[in-house]
Write a structure and sequence with these properties.
By secondary structure, the chain is α/β, with parallel strands linked by helices. It folds into 2 domains: 130 residues, Aspartate Aminotransferase, domain 1, CATH 3.90.1150; 198 residues, 3-Layer(aba) Sandwich (Aspartate Aminotransferase, domain 2), CATH 3.40.640. It is 44% helix and 14% strand. It is globular, with a radius of gyration of 21 Å. The relative contact order is 0.15. Belongs to the threonine aldolase family.
Length: 367
C-alpha cells in the first residue's frame, strides 16, 4: 500500500496536466510559498501571537464575527464548539447528520472525550430541513450544518433553506454551528458573502488546508465569549502549540491567493462535470455541482480505474481522476473530483477525449 501511494504521488507530481486535484507540493515548495509576501524577518508566534493572531483577525473579519481562534485540527475545534453548546445549555445532545464529519471522520470524539451524544434529524443525503429540526423529539444544545455536506456529494442547501433551518434551530433553543471546512467555495451557490452565511450561525469552523491549500489547521469563529472558552479548551485538549506560525503563514497565503479564485473553480467544475457525464456509463452528482467538488460514478471496477489513472499519468504525464472506490453496485465505482487551478486548463472537449482514452485503458485492464 505504501509503495502504491508513493508511486501515485510521484506520477501525479510529474504530470504536466492535472484534471482533478493539484500537483502535490514538496516541503521545499511549501517553504518557498511561506516566504512569498511574508515578513520572514519578523518574530514567530509564541503560543498564538504574531502571525497566528493576524490570521485570527483576518478570519473574523471575513466571517463577520467578533473573534476567531486558531486550532491545529478541525476535530479539536468542532469538539470544542459542541462542548460549548452543551455547557451553556445543559443539554448533552447535539443534532448531527449521520454523514457529517463528527460521525464519520472524527472517531466520535464528541462522545468519547466530551460525554456528549447525538440525535439525527434526518438520514437523507442532505442537511436537515427546518421542519425536521422543529420535529426533534428531544432538546438539543447545538444543531450542526455541514457546508457543503461532503459525504453526501458536496451538497448545499439553498439560501432560503439555510435561513429557515437556522431559525428553526433557535426556535427550539439550540445553537447553530456551521461545519464550514469548505465554506470558502459555498458562496457562489448560496449567492451570499462569507459574512452573510456565517451570520446565520452562532459559530463557524473553517479549514485552512481544505480548498485553500494550507499546511494544516483551521479556526473556530464566533462571539468573544466563545473565543475565550475555546482558548481554554484548546489548551486542555493539547492544542496550545508553541509555534504554529508555518501553518498560519500558509493559511494567510491561501486566503490571499486561492480564496479569490474559488468562484472560478466552481464555474469550471460545472463544465468539467458535464463533460465527464458524457462518458459512456458515467454519472455525476450533484448535477450541476454545488461547489468545485462533486462525485463521479463509472461502470468499471475500482482497481481497473485506479490502475488506468496511474498508467495514463506514467505514460502520458496526464493525471485524470483517481481515488476510485467500489460501491454497493457490483462493477460500478465512485470517486470525488476536485477542479482546482490545474483543472481550469481543460476544455470540455479535452475532458471527453482524455476520458475516452482513460476508459479504454481501464477496459483493457479489466479484461
Amino acid at each position: 500500500m505504501h509503495d502504491t501511494r508513493q508511486r501515485r504521488l510521484a506520477a501525479q507530481a510529474a504530470s504536466d496536466r492535472i484534471l482533478s486535484g493539484a500537483r502535490p507540493a514538496t516541503m521545499r515548495e511549501h517553504l518557498a510559498e511561506l516566504g512569498a509576501g511574508a515578513d520572514l524577518d519578523g518574530q514567530p508566534d509564541y503560543y498564538g501571537d504574531g502571525p497566528v493572531a493576524a490570521l485570527e483577525e483576518r478570519v473574523a473579519e471575513l466571517l463577520g464575527t467578533e473573534a476567531a481562534v486558531f486550532f491545529p485540527t478541525g476535530t479539536m475545534a468542532q469538539q470544542v464548539a459542541l462542548r460549548y453548546g452543551a455547557d451553556r445549555s445543559g443539554h448533552r445532545t447535539a443534532a448531527l447528520h449521520p454523514l457529517g464529519h463528527q460521525e464519520v471522520h472524527e472517531r466520535h470524539a464528541y462522545a468519547q472525550l466530551s460525554g456528549l451524544r447525538s440525535t439525527w434529524p434526518t438520514t437523507a443525503p442532505r442537511n436537515p430541513t427546518a421542519e425536521e429540526i422543529s420535529a426533534l423529539a428531544e432538546s438539543v444544545s447545538t444543531v450542526v450544518i455541514e457546508l457543503p455536506l461532503r459525504d453526501a456529494g458536496f451538497v448545499l442547501p439553498s439560501w432560503d433553506e439555510l435561513v429557515a433551518v437556522s431559525a428553526a434551530a433557535r426556535a427550539v433553543g439550540a445553537r447553530v454551528h456551521f461545519d464550514g471546512a469548505r465554506i470558502w467555495e459555498s458562496t457562489p451557490y448560496l449567492g451570499h458573502t462569507l459574512g452573510e452565511i456565517a451570520g446565520l450561525a452562532d459559530s463557524t469552523y473553517v479549514s485552512f488546508y481544505k480548498s485553500l491549500g494550507g499546511i494544516s489547521g483551521g479556526a473556530l469563529a464566533g462571539s468573544t465569549e466563545l473565543a475565550d472558552y475555546a482558548r481554554v479548551w484548546r489548551h486542555r485538549y493539547g492544542g496550545q502549540v508553541f509555534q504554529p506560525w508555518p501553518a498560519a503563514l500558509s493559511a494567510l497565503a491561501g486566503l490571499d491567493r486561492v480564496l479569490p479564485r474559488l468562484p472560478e473553480y466552481v464555474r469550471h467544475a460545472r463544465t468539467v462535470a458535464a463533460a465527464l457525464a458524457a462518458l459512456p456509463g458515467a454519472r455525476v452528482y450533484p448535477d450541476p455541482p454545488h461547489t468545485h467538488q462533486f462525485r463521479l460514478w463509472l461502470p468499471h471496477p475500482a482497481q481497473a480505474l485506479n490502475e488506468a489513472a496511474l498508467a495514463l499519468a506514467e505514460k502520458e504525464k496526464v493525471w485524470f481522476v483517481a481515488g476510485w472506490q467500489e460501491t454497493e453496485v457490483p462493477g460500478v465505482s465512485r470517486t470525488e473530483v476536485t477542479v482546482a487551478a490545474p483543472g481550469l486548463e481543460w476544455s470540455a472537449e479535452e475532458v471527453v477525449e482524455v476520458g475516452e482514452r482513460f476508459l479504454h485503458v481501464a477496459g483493457a485492464l479489466r479484461d
